[in-house]
Amino acid sequence: QKEVEQNSGPLSVPEGAIASLNCTYSDRGSQSFFWYRQYSGKSPELIMSIYSNGDKEDGRFTAQLNKASQYVSLLIRDSQPSDSATYLCAVSTSGTYKYIFGTGTRLKVLA
Amino acid sequence: GAVVSQHPSWVICKSGTSVKIECRSLDFQATTMFWYRQFPKQSLMLMATSNEGSKATYEQGVEKDKFLINHASLTLSTLTVTSAHPEDSSFYICSASSQGRWDTEAFFGQGTRLTVV
User: Fold this and answer.
1) Which of the residues A2, A4, A25, A43 would you substitute to probe the B interface, choosing the one with the greatest number of B C-beta atoms within 10 Å?
2) Choosing among B3, B44, B102, which should be mutated to test the A contact, i.e. which has the most A CBs within 10 A?
3) Do B43 and A97 touch (CB under 8 A)?
4) β-sheet with A61-66: strand ranges across
5) What percent of chain A has pLDDT over 90?
6) What is the pLDDT of residues A84-94, one digit of tens each?
């Protein structure tokens, strides 16, 4: 059974702080990794994608991938109350577009 | 980015009736579409993979006769929940991809909230 694990939270951080979200996966054949943000009652929206080991930065967001440890993380700098949402980690095997989602981590940014 | 449109955004139906949900790719041709279901406070669970012009592939535990999927064109896939029951009430989300154009990213529709009463 291929699994993607996330801490369900809630993770509470003060406004302006760095929020760190973590995800581990079991399938060593996984090639593509995604972070989605989902507000309550809404569909997920793509935040970051990462395909190779290392860091990838986009604005306030940094995704980190370590395939040897089967670990992917998302850092959110200068957290804002509007960042409060559930963050879903998704993993797929190259070429399949079939995503396995984690259960999501609920982030609360306190004003 | 690509746009995937899902319709309706919400629907209420009586137990025993059928409901059809549409998923359209508006600005690209989607060779593959996926249907997910999300219960409250849970993650997205893949129900089936829909390929244009061929039968859908269902995940283990998903009844193919209850959740009918049709992917008749490169821009439209439909999910029909037949003989709906209250336990089918959920948030249904489709995603679409076009191999070779946006690498391996899939794009999500806005979701359909189904309530069976």
Assistant:
1) A43
2) B44
3) no
4) A4-5, A19-25, A71-76, A61-66, A54-58
5) 77
6) 999 999 998 76
